[in-house]
Amino acid sequence: MAEVTLKVQGMSCNHCVQSIERNVGAIAGVDQVKVSLADGKVDVVYDEAKVSRAQIEAVIDDQGYTVV
User: Fold this and answer.
1) Angle at 32 (CA atoms; ends 44, 11), nearest 5 degrees
2) What would the CATH number be for the domain defined by 2-67?
């Protein structure tokens, strides 16, 4: 398992948190997702054999947020 902390811009409320946690958590190979609204960060634990960091970032980008 790999763990990454992504800096994400554009999150402003609990709906943002729930949206990212739900959509990233639905990706096959993602084990855990924890969003920190105050810090603008998303912590993800995932299986590198099943999903790449780029795929996770793409799902966040597709929701209208920016991974920096």
Assistant:
1) 55
2) 3.30.70.100
